[in-house]
Design a protein that fits this description.
The protein is an alpha+beta fold. Helices cover 33% and strands 26% of the residues. It is globular, with a radius of gyration of 34 Å. The termini are far apart.
Length: 363
């Protein structure tokens, strides 16, 4: 039996059945190729013309016609796919079709989940933005009212200056007693209230400022950290989710870049009665370790009772830092640590530690 294959001439199938199929692709430009006939029957046979960039030819055994079917890869990919499907036995066609449909459904599901995640994160950010705008309005109202009265009744410039030092977040603090501070890093998206609930440290990790369930959650001050003057801890640790849309601490890992650090060295933390300013000291990757591990655990350091405890924390964060900030610290200094998830290692964390450089009382 002779079978015609496009552009390849006639192939004697009896000769092919002898296990070796031999044919000349062109008679002038290409060599004769030999292929195991059983391999052809088992599945696709692929080869490169003369081992140069002429593309790949594919053949399949046609059970019905007992012949080889040629698929021209120069056609559109979908047409090639269609031809491949048609050359397969029925069960293979069904399986391939099901796999294709499942793959398409999976791709659609991934796109939908990603879009839904980003939408929810953006909605969470809009809630925080509403809080920001409300506090700005309150601040403008207070300034407008007080300025008018002050200029009319007060001539002392020092009192006018003191009026400008009123806490801009006073109204926001009054709306939720669980708000312990407000964290702000200029020219970044990090501009959020910081919550703390001593009875349940993780309460706000999955709730917004108002206590409503929210995947983005809020920034949370560790319950082992204290801002109270009579129980001030050496280190304050703030936890926040690493959101895909870049909200909360989703942009914190930008500090992996020294250039980014140089442009965002200063942090501000507003408490009920103070403005605390910090300068970034170190940025590094870490992870949550087993309690039995002897590794340095940054998340367990809150207060230095001795100079040795202070030095242990300080030396480790400086050694771990991705780059040298040039900022130094000594016993008696206070730190602010920002911590978020990292996905380069199991239970990974990315950490930014800053040193307090200034403290200012606010009204």
């Amino acid at each position: 039996m002779m079978v015609m294959i496009e552009n390849l001439g006639l192939i004697d199938m009896n000769e092919a059945k002898s296990r070796v199929l031999e044919f000349d692709l062109d008679e002038t430009e290409y060599d004769v190729y030999k292929y195991d006939f059983e391999d052809i029957r088992d599945d696709f046979l692929e080869f490169d013309l003369a081992e140069e960039e002429y593309g790949i030819l594919e053949f399949d055994w046609d059970e019905e016609n007992e012949g080889l079917e040629f698929i021209d890869l120069g056609e559109e990919e979908w047409e090639v796919f269609r031809k491949v499907i048609l050359t397969l036995p029925l069960w293979r066609r069904v399986a391939a079709t099901v796999c294709a449909l499942l793959a398409a459904a999976g791709a659609i599901m991934i796109v939908w989940i990603t879009a839904d995640t980003f939408m929810k994160e953006r909605l969470s950010e809009q809630k925080v933005e509403e809080i920001r705008q409300q506090q700005k309005k309150q601040l403008n109202l207070k300034e407008g009212t007080e300025w008018g009265g002050m200029w009319a009744s007060v001539k002392n410039a020092e009192l006018v200056w003191e009026a400008l030092r009123e806490n801009p977040y006073t109204d926001t603090f009054s709306r939720n007693d669980d708000m312990i501070a407000w964290l702000k890093i200029k020219d970044t998206v990090i501009d959020y209230p910081v919550m703390q609930t001593m009875e349940d440290e993780e309460y706000y990790l999955n709730r917004d400022f108002y206590g409503n369930e929210d995947k983005s959650g809020s920034l949370v001050l560790d319950t082992d950290s204290s801002l109270d003057d009579d129980a001030m801890t050496t280190n304050l640790i703030i936890h926040g989710h690493n959101m895909k849309a870049g909200t909360m601490f989703g942009s914190l890992d930008e500090y992996r870049s020294e250039k980014y650090y140089r442009e965002h060295q200063c942090l501000e933390l507003y408490t009920r009665g103070e403005l605390r300013k910090y300068e970034v000291l170190a940025a590094f990757g870490s992870r949550i370790y087993y309690s039995t591990d002897k590794s340095f655990k940054y998340y367990t350091f809150f207060h230095a009772n001795t100079e040795e405890e202070f030095q242990y924390f300080y030396d480790n964060i400086k050694n771990l830092s991705i780059y040298d900030t040039g900022v130094t610290a000594q016993p008696g200094d206070n730190f602010l640590t920002l911590s978020t998830c990292a996905y380069d290692v199991k239970d990974g964390r990315f950490v930014v530690v800053a040193k307090e450089v200034e403290r200012e009382s606010l009204r």
